[in-house]
Design brief:
By secondary structure, the protein is mainly beta. It has one domain: Porin. 15% of the residues lie in helices and 38% in strands. It is built from 4 helices and 10 strands; from the N terminus they run H-E-E-E-H-E-E-E-E-E-E-H-H-E. The chain has an 8-stranded antiparallel barrel. Strands 6-7 form a two-stranded antiparallel sheet.
Length: 311
């Protein structure tokens, strides 16, 4: 099966490249920042970047294939390998009325591998031809469709434990029939803007920043309400049930006496169920253009024999 898929991909790539005659292969380095229920939060601002911080920004690697159909439009197929992370310990505040203090007291955290594949259309603001020294740069905007794989994990007694199979918010328990275990593969809508610059007739540098719209609130395994310790133990036994409870309820690590235990009592919200998770991506990439030596020749009209050539 794997050999068959690899062969199909190679044949498709060769066929598309031969047909397009104006294509690029590129790779880039960048960053990914998770934006969800867990993580750094700056209560002093409500701007889009209020949840962005160095502690939850992770490196990424991207490879892609791009076909420019005309000077105003291109299509890119890309794959990105990265990580996402959220950690309530990064939110620090002594003001008990602030969201920062609540996050710090909640004390949840996760990390996950992130594998994204997408197909996007890029609209050039200026006329742009890869490799052209005349139409050599342009800003652009893009959007499309994609799929993302994630698998949230958290540390427990020195080991990373996958959270989705545990049902930390009661998924799978008869007391919570409306809570189903979420899928680790989800659809995603990439929205981005960037700049392309030709540095030669073969090489192009692209800088891009983008937002990923997802259709799940469980990339960090947090969305709904707390479940009681007894519910977990009754369903899974003492050892397994206690582990699930401790992974889903970590405020006792910062408040062992339970002075504010009512905040994280069963039925209280662990996260905000009214919004889905998302993540922010940025990258700098370099690409090599295939095809004719003259990059603009592909877009010139083909004249029939005997027709005059008009410049």
């Amino acid at each position: 099966m794997r050999k068959g898929i690899l062969t199909l991909v190679m044949i498709s790539f060769i066929a598309i490249t031969a047909w397009a005659q104006h294509s690029e292969f590129g790779f880039g380095l960048g960053t990914t920042t998770f934006m969800g229920d867990l993580g750094k939060h700056d209560s002093r601002t409500s701007t889009y970047f209020g949840d962005v911080g160095a502690g939850i920004t992770k490196p990424s690697l991207t490879v892609w294939y791009r076909n420019t159909f005309n000077p105003r439009f291109a299509v890119k197929t890309g794959f990105t390998l990265s990580q996402i992370q959220g950690d309530d310990r990064l939110a620090k505040s002594t003001d008990r009325s602030s969201g920062d203090w609540y996050r710090s007291y909640r004390n949840l955290r996760f990390q996950s591998v992130l594998l994204e594949g997408s197909v996007t259309g890029e609209v050039h603001i200026l006329r742009f031809i890869p490799g052209s020294l005349t139409h050599r740069w342009t800003p652009y905007v893009s959007t499309g469709v994609g799929m993302v794989y994630f698998n949230p994990k958290a540390d427990y007694n020195g080991e990373l434990v996958a959270l989705q199979p545990l049902g930390t918010e009661g998924q799978g328990l008869e007391q919570y029939p409306d809570r189903k275990k979420y899928s680790l593969i989800q659809a995603v809508i990439p929205i981005a803007m960037g700049v392309k610059v030709n540095v030669s007739q073969r090489w192009t540098i692209t800088g891009e920043i983008g937002h990923r719209v997802t259709f799940t609130d469980y990339m960090d395994d947090v969305s709904s309400t707390y479940v009681s310790q007894d519910d977990f133990i009754n369903a899974y036994g003492t050892t397994q049930g206690q582990m699930i409870y401790e992974l889903s309820h970590r405020s006792n690590e910062v408040d062992p006496d339970g002075a504010y235990g009512a905040i994280t009592a069963p039925g209280e919200y662990r996260g905000n169920p009214n919004g889905n998770d998302s993540y922010l991506c940025g990258s700098i990439s370099i690409s090599f253009r295939f095809g004719k030596k003259d990059p603009e020749s592909f877009f010139k009209p083909k004249l029939k024999k005997g027709n005059p050539v008009v410049d």
